[in-house]
């Protein structure tokens, strides 16, 4: 039996208090550390595990896969949930490494806002720019946290102009750092006029105590020292005279980013950020579908933005990450899988808090639910009480690097094919099959680290060892045009859906072939995506 539907006012209340966001950053800027501290302040965990001390201490909750722990990078996204100040917050963890941009890109489709984390000494870095561009494309609001202020940092005014110049977004500070490196004393809240200074707690494990004073308060000199107090007063004067004001409208359309400063490792400024975030960041809005914009108050619909097999050793099954886009989700509800028209009962629904799994009985727009995937779900699929609603398109990246793969133990062919299919379905790699059927498939990836993940997961999760050989291919194109011309032309390779593709060694090869065959179109992505 399912629970009674909430009345419209309860649905509206639950939507209004949802905040679903993702963190984007260049590797090492501090995304994992901030995630951990946000959970600490959200009361989801009591003690933050340190990512620096990889040995002998708790690993962070969001870095759960063993390969991630070995390499110290976040590979696959998990979804974390906590409550803060009456808000229900869903934090989507995204891989920072550039080889995982496709996964990140998809995860960002499920977020209503993003937090951009910058390293105070490095400012905007290459991966920040790429991920920022994805958020910009989607028009979602972006908040900025300048991390590692406890280390020697760029001059804050220079950092803000760097953000403005390289990302073409107006950067408006809402807090201002007092000192940097060993002299970092805290931040000044430009909106309330309060200075927040912090005591460093041992290893940044616990919530840091905060002291406050006003800018004119003589106590300030005692708290931060006369020199820093004088610099702060001068900086604030300059900000008030020369910087644009914070405009919520421009923030919501992605033209302006509010900037906060702090040091996640030492708990400086993280809670203050969180308190501002819940007020600034928007609740779930409408989703663009084939039937137009679907408001979050409409009947239940959710879309799949990520697939992941074998999330934990205890649950060797496939999980689909679903974002609720509208209405009230209840476990056990009957829906339509709208791409196939199949009726489904969503009885296996659980949380995605790393390895822990708890049943999800109900969920609201913005929430992320893990559904056990019986093999029907593809990325971009919709499940809904409304059988016609679908997403217009879902982002995919074109692979840029290719490996030939061969199986060491031919007796493992069945397990190999299963792993290959499931990992390709998740988007770990793309698979291309030679059409003569005789040789082993090619793998395509955006970056070579994906191959290593593929190989490691195939070994760990499917017990299959494979050899990967680097190829000289560097480009793939899907073939389109008059079907008989394509059939005559394509003798080479096809993708996992049987669509004809061709691999090229260089752009020159591609251009030459295209010139010789004007009857064929060479597309960077299949036309139906
Ligand atoms: P990610 O790759 O963006 O997830 O970055 P991590 O959170 O793993 O942090 C990378 C490194 O920077 C780790 O060694 C952290 O301990 C360290 N780190 C994170 N935040 C701070 C900070 O505020 N100050 C300092 N000094 N180090 C930090």
From TrEMBL:
It comes from the Bacteria. Pfam families: EF-G_D2, GTP_EFTU, RF3_C. GTP binds at residues 25-32, 93-97, 147-150. Coiled coil: none annotated. GO terms for molecular function: GTP binding; GTPase activity; translation release factor activity, codon nonspecific; translation release factor activity, codon specific. Keywords: Cytoplasm, GTP-binding, Nucleotide-binding, Protein biosynthesis. GO terms for cellular component: cytosol. One of its GO terms (biological process) is regulation of translational termination. It is found in: Cytoplasm. Residues 16-285 form the Tr-type G domain. InterPro entries: EF-G-like_DII, EFG_III/V, G_TR_CS, P-loop_NTPase, PrfC, RF3_C, RF3_dom_3_sf, RF3_GTP-bd. Increases the formation of ribosomal termination complexes and stimulates activities of RF-1 and RF-2. It binds guanine nucleotides and has strong preference for UGA stop codons. It may interact directly with the ribosome. The stimulation of RF-1 and RF-2 is significantly reduced by GTP and GDP, but not by GMP. Belongs to the TRAFAC class translation factor GTPase superfamily. Classic translation factor GTPase family. PrfC subfamily. PANTHER family: PEPTIDE CHAIN RELEASE FACTOR RF3 (PTHR43556). This is Peptide chain release factor 3. It comes from Deinococcus reticulitermitis. The lineage of its organism: Bacteria, Thermotogati, Deinococcota, Deinococci, Deinococcales.
